[in-house]
């Protein structure tokens, strides 16, 4: 049946698996995507949205590297918002509401258009291991499929257990069976495994809701998109979301079911995502709050199914129903399906290298929730990195690793393998110490040249990036070199309520004032003339404004990043005997031995390793 050996086999077709399979095949490697259900490729298992705080930056980075999540999101979007625009540009984060059915369909169409990608529907029950190397997979029907590398992206399916009140049953998602066999084999091979939990809210019938009693949440008046390419366009029309609130009455009704809640009666023993708690957890932990926001999100352009964001729960379905009917606008609500919690197996990611290859088994890669992360975007970025590195390993090429000052993806991977996680890991801007460098607007400038070197994207993309870099730098220099007429400038400054100037000076200086924005500076005659003779896209002008207003912050972070690189360049040999260095603290010796950091910089980020431990390590390494 399978008479050839594949270069790469990807197990699972969620966000991580889809990106891994796409990039592997697009890089020229024969790839097989194995999934239990070909109808649910790229399924949005939870909320029908992509991006958000820090997550939007990740989607832009995936797109810049030649991944497909941005394109799929744009093509299936029903609303676009740029979050955090009241803050600095390091915090701006794009987000789309998406049509759930179109999203999955678009992923399927994108993947089927890749010539070197094959598909097979079946459950993978085990890995084929020879020595300490994976050489293929074995399905539940006993079929053995050989490959040079395997990427596991099992999502919530590994021994998945669904909870609704006092009922529990096996499943990887509602209506889909769990995956069994792989965890046991990996544990037998020496891997450490654990359990995590996530949850999802009820889906309801939008025809039964009274939107007139809720607050409309429209998209941005001027929309943008995720993908830097010309393969997608920004939205011309959008669908509104809505917002309503819980109340003390709703909370009391929910509390009536706490004795039957698997969260509180001991049935669920694993940890869920701290930053996306269930409604019962919010009521229990924040007892002083008399209401919580609920976002009412349409599931698509035409469907009446609605996602109740903020009401994730595993309470009995009768309790969910009664409580939700007491929410303003939900008085006559009809359920499509109740909310539920799901427990699943994961493998602590400290067992991985920076390439996402496992330390124990050669050519075996983990990506997504199997590594303890939560979120479509986090999973997709790991799938992309695992797919790239699987191909490069087969070709005996250098691994592709992003540093913490190069991408949020670099922060994500480094956090996982250096610090590990005991609860579902979610990306935030606060996790990135160089977030002024890692903005959503410059992901293409940072990463597309790397993608061209990898052979993932074309030279055409590089030409677009080069023009963006060249033209934005040229205009910034123009602003540095060109003086304004102080009388003309004062007309603007008075209108903006900011201090007037007494003499001619450079445009750069006055543009850097927080009260003066791009639209303001466009009214000054020299700038107006410059823009009339130079046809510049909005993304170029955005770069100009960011660089003018945040030049000092950007320079400072670049300087800090350079200092980081000095420690990144101090490599630590594999299997280094940290325990022989008696002057290290006991905790440092234990942590360094367990994690086996590749560089002194990585060692410095391990919890429990102090600056004095790093000094000792540098001395022992002759530095």
From TrEMBL:
Keywords: Cytoplasm, FAD, Flavoprotein, NAD, tRNA processing. Gene3D superfamilies: FAD/NAD(P)-binding domain (3.50.50.60), GidA associated domain, C-terminal subdomain (1.10.150.570), tRNA uridine 5-carboxymethylaminomethyl modification enzyme MnmG/GidA (1.10.10.1800). Its main location: cytoplasm. SMART domains: GIDA_assoc_3 (SM01228). It comes from the Bacteria. NAD(+) binds at residues 272-286. The keyword Phosphoprotein does not apply. One of its GO terms (cellular component) is cytosol. The keyword Flavoprotein applies. FAD binds at residues 12-17, 124, 179, 369. It is found in: Cytoplasm. Its cofactor is FAD. PROSITE patterns: GIDA_1 (PS01280), GIDA_2 (PS01281). One of its GO terms (biological process) is tRNA wobble uridine modification. Residues 548-619 form the tRNA uridine 5-carboxymethylaminomethyl modification enzyme C-terminal subdomain domain. GO terms for molecular function: flavin adenine dinucleotide binding. PANTHER family: GLUCOSE INHIBITED DIVISION PROTEIN A, PROTEIN MTO1 HOMOLOG, MITOCHONDRIAL. Homodimer. Heterotetramer of two MnmE and two MnmG subunits. Belongs to the MnmG family. NAD-binding protein involved in the addition of a carboxymethylaminomethyl (cmnm) group at the wobble position (U34) of certain tRNAs, forming tRNA-cmnm(5)s(2)U34. This is tRNA uridine 5-carboxymethylaminomethyl modification enzyme MnmG. It comes from Nonlabens ulvanivorans. The gene is mnmG.
């Amino acid at each position: 049946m399978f008479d050839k050996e594949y270069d790469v086999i990807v197990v699972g077709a969620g966000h991580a698996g889809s990106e891994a399979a796409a990039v592997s095949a697009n890089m020229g490697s024969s790839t097989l995507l194995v999934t239990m259900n070909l109808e649910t490729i790229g399924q949005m298992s939870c909320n029908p949205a992509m991006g958000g705080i820090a997550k939007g930056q990740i989607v832009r980075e995936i797109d810049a590297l030649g991944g497909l999540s941005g394109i799929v999101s744009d093509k299936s979007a029903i609303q676009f918002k740029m979050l955090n625009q009241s803050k600095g540009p390091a915090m701006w984060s794009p987000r789309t509401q998406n049509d759930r059915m179109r999203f999955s369909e678009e992923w399927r169409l994108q993947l089927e258009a890749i010539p070197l990608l094959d598909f097979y529907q079946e459950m993978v029950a085990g890995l084929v291991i020879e020595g300490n190397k994976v050489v293929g997979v074995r399905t539940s029907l006993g079929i053995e499929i050989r490959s040079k590398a395997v990427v596991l992206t099992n999502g919530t399916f590994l021994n998945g257990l669904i909870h609704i009140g006092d009922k529990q049953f096996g499943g990887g998602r509602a209506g889909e069976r769990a995956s069994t066999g792989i965890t046991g084999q990996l544990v037998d091979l020496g891997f450490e495994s654990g359990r995590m939990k996530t949850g999802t809210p009820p889906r309801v019938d939008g025809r039964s809701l009274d939107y007139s009693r809720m607050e409309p949440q429209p998209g941005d008046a001027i929309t943008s998109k995720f993908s830097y390419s010309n393969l997608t366009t920004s939205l011309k029309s959008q669908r509104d979301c809505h917002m309503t609130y819980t109340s003390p009455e709703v909370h009391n009704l929910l509390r009536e079911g706490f004795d039957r809640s698997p969260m509180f009666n001991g049935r669920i023993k694993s940890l869920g995502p701290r930053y996306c708690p269930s409604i019962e957890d919010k009521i229990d932990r924040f007892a002083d709050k008399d209401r919580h926001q609920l976002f009412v999100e349409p599931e698509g352009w035409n469907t009446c199914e609605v996602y109740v964001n903020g009401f994730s729960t595993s309470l009995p379905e009768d309790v969910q129903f009664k409580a939700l009917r007491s929410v303003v606008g939900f008085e006559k609500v009809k359920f499509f399906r109740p909310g539920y919690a799901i427990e699943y197996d994961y493998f602590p990611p400290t067992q991985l290298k920076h390439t996402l290859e496992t330390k124990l088994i050669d050519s075996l890669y983990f990506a997504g929730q199997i590594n303890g992360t939560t979120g479509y975007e986090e999973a997709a970025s790991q799938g992309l990195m695992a797919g790239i590195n699987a191909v490069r390993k087969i070709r005996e090429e250098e691994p592709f690793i992003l540093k913490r000052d190069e991408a949020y993806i670099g922060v994500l991977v480094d956090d996982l393998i250096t610090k590990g996680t005991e609860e579902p890991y979610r990306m935030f801007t606060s996790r990135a110490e160089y977030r002024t460098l890692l903005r959503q607007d410059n992901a293409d400038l940072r990463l597309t040249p790397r993608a061209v070197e990898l052979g993932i994207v074309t030279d055409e993309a590089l030409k677009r990036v080069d023009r963006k870099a060249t033209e934005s730098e040229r205009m910034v220099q123009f602003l540095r070199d060109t003086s304004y007429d102080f009388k003309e400038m004062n007309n603007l400054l008075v209108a903006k309520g900011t201090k007037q100037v007494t003499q001619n000076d450079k445009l750069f200086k006055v543009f850097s004032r927080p009260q003066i924005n791009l639209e303001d500076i466009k009214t000054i005659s020299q700038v107006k003339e410059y823009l009339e003779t130079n046809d510049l896209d909005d993304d170029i002008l955005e770069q100009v404004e960011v660089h003018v207003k945040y030049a000092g912050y950007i320079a400072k972070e670049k300087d800090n990043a350079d200092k980081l690189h000095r420690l990144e360049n101090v490599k630590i040999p594999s299997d280094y005997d940290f325990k022989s260095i008696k002057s290290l603290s006991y905790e440092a010796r234990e942590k360094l031995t367990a994690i086996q950091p590749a560089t002194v910089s990585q060692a410095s980020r391990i919890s429990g390793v102090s600056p004095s431990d790093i000094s000792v390590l540098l001395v022992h390494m002759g530095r």
